[in-house]
Structure formats: structure tokens, C-alpha cells
Amino acid sequence: MYLSETRGADGAAARPPAPGPPRDTDPPRDTDLTPGADPPPGIGPTRDMAPPPDMAPPPGMDPRPGTGTRRAVITGNVVALGVVSLLTDVSAEMVTAVLPLYLVYGLQLSPAVFGLLDGVYTGATAVLRLAGGHVADRFRRRKLVAGLGYGISAVCKLGFLAAGRSVPLIGLAIGLDRAGKGLRTAPRDALISLSAAPEAQGRAFGLHRAMDTAGALAGPLVAFGVLAAAAGAFDAVFVVSFCVAAAGVLVLVLFVREHAGTAARRAPVRLRDAAALLRDRGYRRVLLGTAPLGLATISDAFLYLMVQRGHDLPANALPLLPVGVAAAYLLAAVPFGRLADRVGRGRVVIGGYAALLACYLLLLVPAGPAGPAAVAAVLVLRGLSYAATDGVVSALAGPLLPEERRASGLAVVQTGQALGTMAASWAFGLLWTAAGPRAAVQVMAAALCAALAIAVPLLRRTPR
């Protein structure tokens, strides 16, 4: 019900008011006045005349005659894209939750090889983020490019079935799955940004990420239930994951609308135009501030392995650890989005990475009587760091970009973070193999401190 009502808000401003008989309070029509003559005393402007500036509607109010309600801050496009992401994340997190269990305990991979595959899982999105953002802007087909990305990821769930126990084929399936994510992320975030008012970017991305995280919360639970029902058969997880992802693609096709703005009347965007974005000081600050933070980010898969091994949890508990992260993320996404709109998005992003640093420090605490509380604190802090950074970075960069190059600009920021996280996964896996997990966490904590020293002066001074 809410979806159908708010979808209409996306295009309401583009539709003229419905014709109807004049009311007693309506001014005379143009035919009642002499052309070029001023209106008679006591008569307001005609419908073809613009109202004086002092009579302009306040921000957030519907400018059409006869309406006094506030314009919807969260439009139908944002809600529909949230549903798509919810279903897609159920599918993706089903696979993500079982991969460490499947690869480390099922296939007996070393931490170095697992780190290599995990880096592919993260970094395969990098190049296609740029390609997806540029193509979406150049041809003004953000929905189509995002849909292709969602479709590729859905089909790749069946690729895990074909890969069997072959590590190279599993790596290929992971790479293609993440390539689909890279292709869709920037166009999707551009659609969200263009569907929300500049002052409501944090709230729009907060709602979207909350719905996205609801899927991330459900995914591991579904995977755990499927494994229990199928007697540990991973194939069943991959099949169910494909079906849920296909449902998400269907919602995108039926309910998400392409944004029709002023960019539709402009020339196609060229690569040279996209590169010119770096001339903007505010955008450059965001890019230079967020890229080093990705270099110091431990992947979730390694985080869960650290928690499981450090606190002697049973191996079959691994798929349930992401639930704690997703629950904290879900509860904090919308409040942090509102906070970002109020106090500054750069400050919230900095706070999110400070929470990640606290998470690292807790990983270094030896297991003891307070073990369960330490595990819960690690998962909650990771979820809070996601809520303060994931969508807020896009909300921070989006309004700094022109409409016709928004997907390209967001793709550059996201690519910088993805490349950094890919390198971090490879480095962490090698450090774990060479010096042990504790030393690897210590190195990453020091790297995050250095990255924050770079990011704080840059992000704190970005526009609110």
C-alpha cells in the first residue's frame, strides 16, 4: 500500500493539476482579462503568472494549488530499490554466511588462499563500478545498468553448483557475482540520490540501507535453516539463493522508475567530463579521505573467523555471526542517516571508522569469562560502523555531483574503497599465515589509525 502511494510522488511534480471547474476563490481565467493588462484590484495573479518570490512555498511543501501537505521525503523509488536490495541481500548473505565454512572447513583452504578468494570477492567490483557508473550516465539508463548487475549476480548463484570443489571455478563464480554487484551499485545509488531532496540524502540512504540490512539479517538465518533441513548440503543453499535473487530482479523491473530529470535533455556524458569531477574541492576531499580507510578494513569473513577461533565457537556457528552485525546495522541505519543530515555526514563517517577501530581492539582481548559479551560487542561495533559509513558516504558525495555525472562520481568513490578493501584482504591473509591472526589484527589497527589521521581533516571540512 505504502509502495503504491509513494511511487506516485516520484512523478507528481511533472504532472499538471487535473482540470476542473473554477472555485469561488479562483481568480478569473485569462479570457476574462484584457491581454497584457494588469489584474483588477483585489484579484490575484492568473494561473499563467508566476507567484511573487515572497509567496513561494516553503521547502518540503507541495507547490501545487490546493495542497498543503508536505511532500514525501522518501519516494517510491527509494522504497522499491530498498525492496530489491532486501531480496538481493537475503540471497547474497546466504552465500556469504556459508563461504567461510565451505572454503575453510569443507575444502580445507589455508588463510592465505582464503584471503586471495576473499579479495576477489571484494575487489572484483572495482573496475565494473567505474564502467557501470559511466555507462549509466552516458546513456541515461541507470535502471537498465543496475538491472543487468542484479541479473548477473542472480545467475552466478547457480555457478557455485557448477563449480563443485574446484577452487579456480569457485573463484570465477565469486568474481562474476561481485562483478554484478560492482555494475549495479553506482547506478542504484545514483537513482536513490536523485530521488531524494539534497537535505534528505542521509535519511533516504539510511532507509535503503536499513531495508538492505534486513535482508542481510535474514540471509544467514535462511542459510542456517536450509543447511539444517538439507543435512548440510551446500547445493541447496545456492539454489534457494538464486530463487530469492530472481525475485529481486523482478521487483526492479516492475516497480523502479528511471529518473527523468534535466539531464535527459543534455548531451551524453564523456569520460573527459567524468574526469573533470576531480576539479571540485569538496568531492576531491571525500575521495582522498575515504580511499585510505578501505586499505585498513578487515573483511567480514576474516572478522568472523577471528571471533570463531578466538572464542572457541563451534564451526557451524559461523553462519550465525553475521546476524549480530546485521541486527546492529539495521537498528542504527535510519537514526545515523538522520544524524548525518543534522550534524554533518563527514563527522558520522569518521565516527563509524572509530567504531571499527574499537572493534579491532576488542579482537585483541583474550577470551575469558567475558567472552560472550566481547563477541557481542565486536559484532555490534561492526554493525554500527557499517550504519555510519556505508550509505552515509554516498549521501556525502552525491549532492556534490551534478545530476548527469552522479553515477560516475559515486562509482569513483566506491571503487577507491573497494580496491583498498581488496588489498587489505590479501595483506591480512598473508599476515595471518606468516605471523598469526593476532599480529595481523595489530597491523590493521595501526593502519586504521594512520588512515583516520588522513581522513579526519579532509572529511570534517566537507559540506554538510
UniProtKB/TrEMBL annotation:
Report which residue ranges the record marks as coiled coil.
Answer: none
Q: Name one GO cellular component term.
A: plasma membrane
Subcellular localization(s) per the UniProt record: Cell membrane
- Which keywords belong to this entry? Membrane, Transmembrane, Transmembrane helix
This protein's membrane topology, according to the annotation, is: Multi-pass membrane protein
Which SUPFAM superfamilies is this protein grouped with? Answer: MFS general substrate transporter (SSF103473)
Q: Could you tell me where the Basic and acidic residues compositional bias lies?
A: 23-32
Tell me one Pfam family matched here.
MFS_1
Q: Where is this region: Disordered?
A: 1-69
| Domain of life, source organism | Bacteria
Output compositional bias ranges, type Pro residues: 50-62
**In this protein, which residues make up the domain named Major facilitator superfamily (MFS) profile?**
77-463
Show the GO MF annotations.
Answer: transmembrane transporter activity
Q: What is this protein called?
A: MFS transporter
From which source organism is this entry? Answer: Sphaerisporangium rufum
